[in-house]
Amino acid sequence: MGSEGRVWNGAGVAAGSGYGGSVEAKATTAAPADVPTSAASVDISLPLPEMSPHIIGLCKELVKGWSSIDSSRFSIETVSGGITNLLLKVSVKGNNGNDSSVTVRLYGPNTDLVIDRKRELQAIPYLSAAGFGARLLGMFENGVVQSFIYARTLSPADMKEPKIAAEIAKELRKFHQVDIPGSKEPQLWNDIFKFLKKALKFEDNEQQKRYVKISFTEIQDEVKELKDLLDILHAPVVYAHNDLLSGNLMLNDLEGKLYFIDFEYGSYSYRGYDIANHFNEYAGFDCDFNLYPDKDAQYHFFRNYLHPDRPSEAQDMEVLYVETNTFRLASHIYWALWALIQAKVSPIDFDYLGYFFLRYGEYKKQRDSCFALAQSFLSGLRNG
């Protein structure tokens, strides 16, 4: 879904271990089986009835065993139409009266400005082979076909329930151990500076009046200072989800199975960033950042992330706490700049510019305390 849940009601691989925060060596990820591909594309601007024949044709081409099924036995419904893509459920009526279903995800227009599709498509087969998300069934020019997950989407309130939080932490640890071939260089700062360069002036006069209030010199200085501080922490680099909000978490209550879905923003990044970004999403659809978890709730998460089967070392817990609560700032900067790009190019009726001011405002609100936490920790190391 890639940020479908991001709604606002407003107008290198485990190579470094950080300061005591060890990450176990990654298990070798099995190479994915060959995934069928198609050069076809679907016009996402079409109404669903006009789009349906193209979707059916793609499913016949890509889904094993569906090529000879009569088109009259297909049905298509919209699962979600979100900020970065359109998700469809495609079902086929079987001879026994039961439906077989898949999902078709269509990329939204201009999303290549904020999402590296090449990076995503490189990772999906390996994540799928490792058991994460829906099983990848096929790829086409502007989307993918995946298995249908029979589970409910979590709410922001679900994420902070201790039992669910523990399962998210355990699953995230496994996710961070997946080995994706290619460069293991962290992409967070590259992406942030890319967003800064792509920030454009607005053609809409009302937007431009608000846009001129933004000091990009100030933002650039803040990013550089934050990066310099975080570099000193030497946070472990992992393959990160980078968008672990409630809309990208699904739970089958009967089986107790938790699913991570939608890896559009996935990349090699810092473990503390991925966890901090998840904690920021406790704010929910109203963006109430007062709901950010307190230290006790964070330590409950960390215990299940670090060593779910044995007691965690106090030093490991402290390291992860400092990492997470400093990268908390990077998450606000990232999504603030993301919103500026979306404000310029997205056809979605959403106050992206207002979202920028909201996230950057939260960055400034939390800045001094987060910097002080990291600086105090580093000072203690130097003096210890």
Report what the structure shows.
About 45% of the residues lie in helices and about 15% in strands. It is of the alpha+beta class and about 375 residues long. A hairpin with a 5-residue loop joins strand 2 (about 85-95) and strand 3. About 40% of the residues are buried. Residues about 1-5 and about 5-25 have low confidence and may be disordered. It is an enzyme of class 2 (transferase). Belongs to the choline/ethanolamine kinase family. InterPro entries: Kinase-like_dom_sf.
Give keywords:
Phosphorylase Kinase, domain 1; Aminoglycoside 3'-phosphotransferase, Chain: A, domain 2; alpha+beta; globular; three-stranded antiparallel sheet; five-stranded antiparallel sheet; disordered N terminus; 2 domains; about 375 residues
Q: Topology, please?
A:
Elements: H1 48-62, E1 74-81, E2 85-93, E3 99-107, H2 117-129, E4 136-140, E5 143-147, E6 152-153, H3 156-159, H4 162-175, H5 188-198, H6 205-211, H7 216-233, E7 237-240, E8 249-252, E9 257-260, E10 267-270, H8 271-280, H9 295-306, H10 314-345, H11 352-383
Antiparallel strand pairs: 1-2, 2-3, 3-5, 4-5, 6-8, 7-10, 8-9
Helix pairs in contact: 4-9, 5-7, 5-10, 7-10, 7-11, 8-10, 9-10, 10-11
Protein name: ethanolamine kinase
Pfam families: Choline_kinase
Family: Belongs to the choline/ethanolamine kinase family.
